[in-house]
Amino acid sequence: MSTIRFKALQETFNRKPVVVEEAGRRSELFGQNVFNEASMRQFMTKDAFKSVMDAIQYGTKIDRKMADQVAAAMKDWAISKGATHYSHWFQPLTGSTAEKHDAFFETIGGGMAMEKFGGGQLVQQEPDASSFPNGGIRNTFEARGYTAWDPTSPAFIYGTTLCIPTVFVSYTGEALDNKAPLLRALQAVDHAATEVAKYFDKNVTKVNATLGWEQEYFLIDKALAFSRPDIVLAGRALLGHSPAKGQQLDDHYFGSIPSRVMSYMRDLELECMRLGIPVKTRHNEVAPNQFELAPIFEEANLAVDQNSLLMDVMTKIADRHNFVVLFHEKPFAGINGSGKHNNWSLSTDTGVNLLAPGSTPMKNLQFLTFFINAIKAVHDNEELLRASVASASNDHRLGANEAPPAIISVFIGDQLTKVLDELEGVSNGKLSPEEKTELKLNVVGKIPDVLLDNTDRNRTSPFAFTGNKFEFRAVGSKANCGKPMTILNTIMAKQLKDFKKEVDGLIDKKGLKKDEAIFNVLREYIKASKKIRFEGDGYSDAWEKEAEKRGLSNNKTTPQALKALISKKTISLYEEMGVMSNVEVHARHEIELEEYTKSIQIEGRIIGDIARNHVIPTAIKYQNTLIENVRGLKEIYGAAFKKVAGEQLDLIEQISNHISEINSKVNAMIEERKKANKLTDAQKMADAYCDKVKPYFDQIRYHCDKLELLVDDDSWPLTKYRELLFTR
Ligand code: ADP
Ligand code: MG
């Protein structure tokens, strides 16, 4: 009997839901462990408070004296909450989050000690950066990197540590993390969008990008997950035959949340409340043991931080409930994978959602302006947007008939399609009074202020307008939202900047009125960006052919998709918008290629290992049992044994065939890995892993999974799909 598997199952059967005490009303818990506006007011001097608020609102610098005051207040607050350590919390280019803990406690001589934390420690720290990926930046420039406080995302206490959100940059200023470029992109989109919003309302002084993510994940019992080396090491099952019953009946989606999971979710939500993460919805997802969690949307930088924090919190709380969380985009072949829809919009400091239709023609023209510019931005940069969600794990999902395809397109629904069609007919240059009235009354004026219920939800579109926001659905569940958010906001910033220039040009040079100029430019954008709009079934083969005709990219693999990150166009875009330098862009590209290569390499090793050390020996043992049996039959029946041992002989042969296939495929894969490892160019190496190594995975798996069906269940060493997915 296979011990680990059956022990794990036994352990799982005996589990009870972990009791979670409700700790008072959630509204009271909310933000308890966050150094938010309320706690800042309470703990800070007026001046310090004002300087932080100015930094948040206008990006002004906090001087050193103020930083000391802010640090003192932050420390007092943290200690009052039981914190003993502080940490600069940041998001390196690979992995989720990183932190280095330091105690507040310092000795002050004479055998005494006190709690210390000054402005210096708040504003800047020097983590041992050498182990974080930097794509050659630190080698080329300076050996050291430092973390610097980001006052726009509030500090929080996790456990007994005060966590201070920071950017991570090299001494020469290059970003070594996901946050620094995001902040620059958000600033760029703020500037560009504010200028455009001023056409409609002079009082707008700031525009925030908003993000509401929807996190999908799998929860697997800890003992079962740990019984599988592939799940432990790669975060997904590399082998395993599909169970007889999967998600066909949709019974998980519509069923009630299992009680152990419910108790996990409650625990998680309470922690989220304390950390100020406004989680709101929870439910089962399509696949068995798959779930989703979504918050109320927030300013994008904060929302990205909260998602990174959440993923960490989810993992830790899962452990307490004897679960393992899988964030992998495709942990189990044959059933649905996980994504992280990024709902995105722009919102003014006057409280207007720029992607929400309004109640007057003018408000609707504002809506249409931002709406059409967003479509144009996606049109002009579809390949870059695709690159923003590329990863080895997300490659399993995109284009796999359950998630959006690798082709980027925009879905807007019938009503808005009609509106855009009509706007396409707007006259060139000055508009007659009749045309203006007609536009106001019958086109722009006819957009209902609540489109939400009317936008049909095309679930197959990677970038869909859903009433008052766009939903970028191609983002992977494991991803740091910072990457897609940086790219999306950068392309929007560029687009709005160009738009403003064109409109101003028509006003100045052609003497057009503002609204005439806007209509004229929008008309051209609608025409120019038509090919990105697609309302049909994104999963169909017909769309792939159609998209090719339209000249849209269809980059199915990460090494292919990432090329857009370093195109001339991308680099000049980043430089123009002040988001990243040439060096930063190339560093990132290299890191992402390396990450891709490493993850395929690791998976290749695991699959070879399991196939050779687990599957083949088990198959041989079972085959020996069969051989024993045939021998016995031969003793009893003599020459006539073949008649009674036919099935067994057939099985023996089948097992031999599978074993030899596995062996030769594993050998061939290892040969390809050796060849790939000799390559020195990161792109070529990633290509080799993608095109030469990876194809063996499915072939090896095929034979292993066949053996799973042939070999005695009692001796099969790997916990089976049905056990992983249906035991709770
Ligand atoms: P669903 O798509 O599940 O039907 P909703 O329309 O309520 O549901 O929104 C889904 C997600 O979109 C939520 O996480 C929500 O926070 C987010 N969202 C709603 N409005 C905005 C906005 N203006 N900007 C960014 N995200 C938003
Ligand atoms: Mg959604």
From TrEMBL:
UniProt cross-references to InterPro entries, sorted A to Z: Gln-synt_C (IPR040577), Gln_synt_N (IPR008147), Gln_synth/guanido_kin_cat_dom (IPR014746), Gln_synth_cat_dom (IPR008146), Gln_synth_gly_rich_site (IPR027303), GS_Type-3 (IPR052725), GSIII_N (IPR022147)
Entry-linked Pfam families: Gln-synt_C, Gln-synt_C-ter, GSIII_N
Coiled-coil stretches noted in the UniProt entry, renumbered to this chain: 652-679
PROSITE patterns cross-referenced by the UniProt entry: GLNA_ATP, GS_BETA_GRASP, GS_CATALYTIC
Alphabetically ordered keywords of this record: Coiled coil
Residues of the GS beta-grasp domain: 84-173
Record flagged with keyword Coiled coil: yes
Family: Belongs to the glutamine synthetase family.
This protein's name: Glutamine synthetase catalytic region
Highest classification ranks of the organism: Bacteria, Pseudomonadati, Bacteroidota, Flavobacteriia, Flavobacteriales
